[in-house]
């Protein structure tokens, strides 16, 4: 049983690496306080259009000169990503999206992916 689990874990790890290596973004919209990016994945896409698997909306909240907090919402459109077995993949893609598009700024993240939805907070020291 442990050998079977190890094989599955290795396959999930490979799938995550493949998706992250192929991950692409296109900016769709930009205003003074927000950006919207399409998220393109290797094996996942919007089921209706065949386009981006999801989108990231980045909203900048600026409070004076000291406090900068970014609200990031990621919405996945490919319903296959709602499968609980793909939570690790959804988490890894969302984490990579924040790292690439937001960087190391203080960020509140909200991920919408059916049963794989979650909220997280990224804080820099």
Question: What is the element layout, followed by pairings?
Answer:
Layout: H1 2-22, E1 24-30, E2 34-40, E3 54-63, E4 67-76, H2 87-101, E5 107-112, E6 118-122
Parallel strand pairs: 4-5
Antiparallel strand pairs: 1-2, 2-3, 3-4, 5-6
Helix pairs in contact: 1-2
Structural account:
Helices cover 29% and strands 36% of the residues. The radius of gyration is 16 Å and the shape is globular. Helix 1 packs parallel to helix 2.
Distance between the termini: 42 Å
Low-confidence stretches: none
> In this structure, how is the largest beta sheet organized?
6 strands, mixed
Q: What sort of overall outline do the alpha carbons produce when their principal axes are compared?
A: globular
Helix and strand composition category: alpha+beta
Question: What is the element string, with H for helices and E for strands?
Answer: HEEEEHEE
Helix proportion range:
25-40%
Q: Rg to the nearest angstrom?
A: 16 Å
Number of strands: 6
Helical run tally: 2
Mean pLDDT, to the nearest integer, reads 89
How are the strands of the largest sheet arranged?
1-2-3-4-5-6
- Strand residues, percent: 35-45%
Salient structural properties:
125 residues; alpha+beta; 6-stranded mixed sheet; 2 helices; 6 strands; 29% helix; globular
Write a concise synopsis of the structure shown.
With 125 residues, the protein is of the alpha+beta class.
